[in-house]
């Protein structure tokens, strides 16, 4: 299992918050803090990249929903997650009913750029 880390990068006015490792009750606060800092910078779009995440527990899912609420309706938002330990739990929990999920970063960036945010 990879050690948890979270980084922020930008592609034009879209922020990409990339996490690695496991997102659970111990690491979700770090993810939340990174998201909150990024939201304060008023991005036009926001992407969580979970390509290198081993597991997304319920605490991580709560960060996704909270970030959506912090951003508001006019900011494009997407999550990159592909695989049984990331995308499957998000689908089962119903997160994908309100948050766009993509298998790769390019697709997520295209969605966010095209959402007018």
From TrEMBL:
Residues 14-112 form the STAS domain. GO terms for molecular function: anti-sigma factor antagonist activity. Gene3D superfamilies: STAS domain. InterPro entries: STAS_dom, STAS_dom_sf. PROSITE patterns: STAS (PS50801). PANTHER family: ANTI-SIGMA FACTOR ANTAGONIST TM_1081-RELATED-RELATED (PTHR33495), ANTI-SIGMA-F FACTOR ANTAGONIST RSFB (PTHR33495:SF13). This is STAS domain-containing protein. It comes from Mycolicibacterium grossiae.
């Amino acid at each position: 299992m990879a050690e948890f880390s979270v980084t922020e990068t930008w592609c034009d006015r879209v922020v990409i918050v990339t996490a690695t490792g496991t997102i659970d009750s111990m690491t979700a606060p770090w993810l939340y803090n990174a998201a909150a800092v990024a939201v304060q910078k008023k991005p036009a779009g926001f992407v969580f990249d979970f390509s290198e995440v081993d597991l997304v527990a319920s605490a991580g899912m709560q960060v996704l929903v909270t970030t959506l609420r912090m951003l508001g309706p006019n900011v494009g938002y997407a999550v990159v997650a592909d695989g049984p330990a990331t995308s499957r739990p998000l689908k089962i929990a119903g997160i994908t009913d309100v948050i766009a999920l993509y298998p790769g970063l390019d697709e997520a960036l295209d969605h966010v750029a095209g959402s007018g945010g």
